[in-house]
Design goal:
There is one protein chain. The protein is an alpha+beta fold. It has three helices and four strands, in the order ββαββαα. The strands form two sheets. The protein has a two-stranded antiparallel ribbon with strand order 1-2. A hairpin with a 2-residue loop joins β1 and β2. The longest helix has 9 residues. The radius of gyration is 15 Å and the shape is globular.
């Protein structure tokens, strides 16, 4: 996320604010910022609960994997 022109990772925001997971969303209710946190993760890898939510919203497995493992690519193993 970008705050004040600075790009911050979910891991960094989680640590700074003491959130229980990096699977969070941020909104503004007109008076204050509201963090909605899902799961109780360690901040590494894929959350089974988060993946289930994304799947229920219609995300493909490729989109879900890309969300949790950015910068990676899916490939067929021919071994």
């Amino acid at each position: 996320m970008v705050i004040g022109g600075e790009t911050l990772t979910g891991v960094y925001v989680r640590a700074c604010l003491g959130l229980r997971s990096t699977d969070f969303s941020l909104s503004w209710n007109g008076e204050q910022f509201v963090f909605t946190v899902a799961g109780s993760g360690h901040g590494v890898g894929m959350s089974q609960y988060g993946a289930k939510v994304y799947a229920a919203q219609g995300w493909t497995y490729q989109e879900i994997l890309s969300r949790y493992y950015p910068g990676t690519a899916l490939a067929v193993y021919g071994g």
